[in-house]
Specification:
- 30% of the residues lie in helices and 34% in strands.
- Strands 2-3-1-4 form a 4-stranded antiparallel beta sheet, with helices on one face.
- The longest helix has 13 residues.
- The relative contact order is 0.33.
């Protein structure tokens, strides 16, 4: 299964690059969780109001979703970065 997290930062966020760098470091450790095979992050190359800023792509088995949701990395993602997000879209596909 491929799990996408697509986010837009609040308009008040002036340090997007710094936040993205911190998010990259955090998500690098996700592959240490058994069953998470791949993690990639993609920054938007266009800075417009109608564009999202970051996409995180994760590849794992469908039964790992609950493991991911309860992981310390996921909790840290939500606790440390949720306050900077104006929008978040989650999309899962085979």
């Amino acid at each position: 299964m491929t799990h996408y997290i697509i986010v837009k930062f609040l308009d008040t966020v002036s340090n997007k690059e710094e936040l993205i760098s911190q998010i990259n470091v955090l998500f690098l450790h996700a592959t240490e969780i058994p069953g998470i095979d791949q993690v990639q992050t993609f920054s938007s190359c266009i800075d417009r109001a109608n564009r999202h800023d970051l996409m995180i792509k994760m590849v794992f088995e469908p039964d790992i979703l609950n493991v991911w949701d309860s992981s310390e990395i996921h909790k840290k993602w939500k606790d440390d970065f949720g306050k900077y997000l104006a929008a978040k879209t989650i999309f899962d596909c085979d």
